[in-house]
Known about the structure:
The two termini are 20 Å apart. The chain is built from 8 helices and 9 strands. A hairpin with a 2-residue loop joins strand 5 and strand 6. By secondary structure, the chain is an alpha/beta fold.
Amino acid sequence: MNRGLMVVVSGPAGSGKGTVNAELLKTGEFVYSVSATTRAPRPGEVDGVNYHFITEDEFRARLDEGGMLEYTQYCGNYYGTPRKEAEEVLDSGKHLILEIEVDGAMQVKRRYPEAVLIMLLPPSYEVQEQRLRGRATETEEKILARLEQTKFEVRRLPDYDYVVYNHDGGAVECAREIQTIVRAECHATKRSPTAASDYFRKQND
């Protein structure tokens, strides 16, 4: 198989998606899909690296042009995956990491049934709340909104292929588990529907 896999990593706020995905990138097997968003940058975030920070008008224009693989609205902001860049990564043979919310993940699954969907979760709801408050970067109202959103996200867990728990200090182990999942998926028989016929054809060459 020469084409890379589309790997969706979702999870509620505080699950550590960014940290775990950063560990995956170190392996050289994955490329991170930089999403576009209308939300304001957080301290330390860089345009074009963490997100493509664009206006709502620009985001809507890209939607009208079919330039987004998926998009969703989350806590009052738009998020989306640029289509062209995603296809280029897959064609290169690298695995593409999409760090997106549940709504976007379901859109990807409909358009790319072969995508691998992974839900990353903190050890518990209590730990999630502790992590969000420990950031000290958001208002109480925003924290409560993210916790409320978690209830919806976790209910969609059966729509995902795998669940991985991110314990405190466990980002490296989480990345290894996801890497193992992806490597196993590469060898799944569903991804090689002509394997049997190819095998015998090669024997007769």
